[in-house]
Amino acid sequence: MINREVLKSIADEIRNTLLSKISEDDDSITKESIIDYLIETIDAISHISDEDISSVTQTKKAFSNAFKEIAKNGIDSYKHTNSRFEELSELHLETLDAFSSEQIDIPVFTEKFQTIQNHMVDEITKANSIIAQLSQQVKILESKSNIDSLTKTFNRRALSSYLNKVFENPNLQKNFHIIMIDLADFKSINDTFGHLAGDKVLIYISNILRKILRSDDKVFRYGGEEFLITLGNVSQKTCQEITNRILKLIRENNLIYKNQLIHVTASIGTTKIKTDDTVDA
Fold it and tell me: Of 79, 81, 91, 107, which has the fewest CB atoms closer than 10 Å, so is most exposed?
């Protein structure tokens, strides 16, 4: 299992890369390029091997390259399109100059502007194609990610992978507990306050869960308003204490959204891994 120091060094590498890029006074650094870079880093981190520490070093080196590659694609596309539009602007001016001091030949004049329009349409089509390709790359990275994009908890894909790993290792199965949390009347929150408020509630709950758990415990978004927590090597009593604490925090803390108080309640169930259990069971 990767320790805290390694994780801290990874976080520092990402932070330093971002700060160095932003401080370079480069107009190409945009919010979109930073988002793309973070998606790349998530994908890279998800492929780190717990057993091979060298993969951590290799991943950290890839962070800077990931940013450069995304930025390069965007910059090259922008420069090419910008250059073509500059050429078209010059052609436009030349056309105007050519007819400024003489009688306008309407057919020739029309032909010139039709040529300009055709070039502009062609460049816009190419730009849209590049944007579509980059958007598809982002979608592919998101599909490979182990992180839920809204709550920043692990997603169901990561849960399946992690549970399979647990069932392959008898040492991890020792006193292994699962907690399932279902937010009550979540549909009524969406209906009353709107889906954006519902998203805020999910983020709010996920933050509560992360704060009270140990570093080795994991939080997954299992479904729309369902979360799953895994606890390794804890007694049944400790598991019950954790569930009671979760319920208490959810019950006693209310979310304020647009000056409106949103009261959230939840149901919790727990189970301990038993002999001959399977992931599905």
Answer: 107
